[in-house]
Amino acid sequence: MLLETLFLLLPVAAVSGWVAGRRSKPVDQESPRNTISPIYLQGLNFLLNEQPDKAIDVFIQILEVDSDTIETHLALGSLFRRRGEVDRAIRIHQNLIARPSLTKEQRSQALFELGQDYLRAGLLDRAEALFSDLIASAPHTEVALNYLIDIYQQEKDWEKAIETARRIEVKTGNKQYSRVAHYYCELAEQAIRNGDKIRAQKLVRKALNTNKKSVRASLLEGKLEIQNGNDKAAIKALRRIEQQDITYLGEAIPLLVECYQRQERMDELMDYLEQLMSQQQAVSAVLVLSEQIQKQQGENEAVHFISESLQKHPSIKLLDKLIDLNIKQTAEPVRDKLQILKDVTSKLLANKPLYQCHLCGFSSKQLYWQCPGCRTWESLKPIQGAEGD
Question: Nearest 5°: CA angle at 286, between 284 and 290?
Answer without folding.
Answer: 120
